[in-house]
Amino acid sequence: xxxxxxxxxxxxxxxxxxxxxxxxxxxxxxxxxxxxxxxxxxxxxxxxxxxxxxxxxxxxxxxxxxxxxxxxxxxxxxxxxxxxxxxxxxxxxxxxxxxxxxxxxxxxxxxxxxxxxxxxxxxxxxxxxxxxxxxxxxxxxxxxxxxxxxxxxxxxxxxxxxxxxxxxxxxxxxxxxxxxxxxxxxxxxxxxxxxxxxxxxxxxxxxxxxxxxxxxxxxxxxxxxxxxxxxxxxxxxxxxxxxxxxxxxxxxxxxxxxxxxxxxxxxxxxxxxxxxx
Amino acid sequence: xxxxxxxxxxxxxxxxxxxxxxxxxxxxxxxxxxxxxxxxxxxxxxxxxxxxxxxxxxxxxxxxxxxxxxxxxxxxxxxxxxxxxxxxxxxxxxxxxxxxxxxxxxxxxxxxxxxxxxxxxxxxxxxxxxxxxxxxxxxxxxxxxxxxxxxxxxxxxxxxxxxxxxxxxxxxxxxxxxxxxxxxxxxxxxxxxxxxxxxxxxxxxxxxxxxxxxxxxxxxxxxxxxxxxxxxxxxxxxxxxxxxxxxxxxxxxxxxxxxxxxxxxxxxxxxxxxxxxxxxxxxxxxxxxxxxxxxxxxxxxxxxxxxxxxxxxxxxxxxxxxxxxxxxxxxxxxxxxxxxxxxxxxxxxxxxxxxxxxxxxxxxxxxxxxxxxxxxxxxxxxx
Lengths: 277, 383
Ligand SMILES: Cc1ncc(C[n+]2csc(CCOP(=O)(O)OP(=O)(O)O)c2C)c(N)n1
Ligand code: SF4
Ligand SMILES: [Mg+2]
Hints:
Bound molecules: thiamine diphosphate, iron/sulfur cluster, magnesium ion
Mean pLDDT of chain A: 97
CATH superfamily of the largest domain in chain B: Thiamin diphosphate (ThDP)-binding fold, Pyr/PP domains
Largest interface: A-B, 42 and 45 residues
Number of domains of chain A: 1
Shape of chain A: globular
Number of strands of chain B: 16
CATH superfamily of chain A: Thiamin diphosphate (ThDP)-binding fold, Pyr/PP domains
Shape of chain B: globular
Radius of gyration of chain B: 21 Å
Number of domains of chain B: 2
Order of helices and strands of chain A: HHEEHEHHEHEHEHHEHHEH
Distance between the termini of chain B: 48 Å
Helix content of chain A: 40-55%
Oligomer: heterodimer
CATH class of chain A: Alpha Beta
Order of helices and strands of chain B: EHEHEHEHEEHEHEHEEHEEHEEHEHEH
CATH architecture of the largest domain in chain B: 3-Layer(aba) Sandwich
């Protein structure tokens, strides 16, 4: 067994019945690989990790890995994670969500988590569709695309999850794709090491729904699409707006320092105790 | 200060909501997440002051859905947790209350009832969430609902709510009404008062032997907190004894039945209430919350007039106090159930009644408390 596979196996739950629920070729598995490699490189113990998810194909991820795992309700993963982290700040709390999970039903929680700056990592698998329920449009479905609830065409504008996170105040935001596996590993590692709320948007493919409905080909072809449409932040700096049309940036989009909620709350505790004396 | 029997004590004039906060802190609550709403807001405000003093954490979330979610998360991480709301927020919480039932996460939810439906009557009392407290979340499920009618009971029943939620790994709902939430009464705390506090039973076997949702004689599985070495999976999906999702009928059936059994086999431990002058009563009033106060006055006045009237006060609403109600149905031919709704507990009384007594109701839905005079008038009518 190659080293890299051995490493992944170290973190899988072998008493859980495999195979997993995902379609062969789905990007979520690649994202899971990146997540495990980054956790391993950061040196966290299995016991200190709490992996929280919402509902969706992405939401099914935690059950397969050997951490403290919490599969919550659709859209609410960040709110559950907030309680976990505040109750036990020693835990490393990582949240994985789908695009619908994070910015449709959970959009309010997402922007407030970004604003509050609690030490959480939010990883969002953006496949531009509701995978689990069979391919309906999501807030990230691009204008003009087809889904099972926009079979004529999609007339809404899409959210950019990363830009939303930046605007809402998240101190760390990175975007990667499942094609750029090495970049994804490093983005996750940086996000885990960041003190404060960190977001990693993972552009992925749902070839069985989004790809099929829009004639985008197999999983491999959809990954080639990612390769051809992604531009690194560094490269984009020297490109014109015209050249950047129909492209998206990958890499670290923002990395700044802001007061951390729990450090601030410690001050509240001090104030409460001195006032009480 | 010391009282006549030389017991040191402290006296306070507390609001029902403040007494709930005192009770919660005493019970060991160290995490509160909430969203402001009348008539529950004072609980959030007081928690934001008190919790940081005792190394606890208060947070105001973006809505009630997030509040109950954070409460469940905090409880999984090992901290006793609570939220408080009123009708509109209680409606928003329902999906995640079901999650807490399914994943067996202890937590306490206060619903200070106001008139409904919808935004309803924000500043007036009502008792119209009794059935929502029982059946608000989807799916067949067990629940425990307690209902105070005095400030002292707000304190005592909040402590009980935490104890029961920890013991049975189930959410406990404290259903108060606007009158009880906002009224002030004297409350005395004795320094030597012994308060029973129950903490969840944790596993002590090696982690590889721990089976997170396996049945026990009490029906309640041992609960490991996140981060203590027992890594397991928590989900709102139907799960097997290891916590992993399952759709196998032979795993689902015993799981759902165990959820019910862990409450029903301890039915007698969950019955709180008071029989007042019921032994020889021809007429018994069954009441709860603020209406129980009016009912007691009505009983005192009726007794002075020589009428044999009694009161069964319910402090547990769910599981329904069937045996207590049966007792008064056996002794009184006439039962009156005054409620500030169109008849929620009276339906239960009628269900338990096997034709031995006549059950009358008083239903008031105008936002004004049922008065002793109204109850007296009903007694006269039906006697
Ligand atoms: C409250 C609620 N509404 C709707 C659903 C149904 N539902 C399950 S997953 C899902 C969408 C998932 O899409 P996304 O979050 O993008 O995740 P993906 O499956 O694409 O990974 C929906 C609508 C639900 N489980 N709960
Ligand atoms: S439906 Fe789409 S997102 Fe879900 S597992 Fe299949 S390919 Fe992946
Ligand atoms: Mg999706």
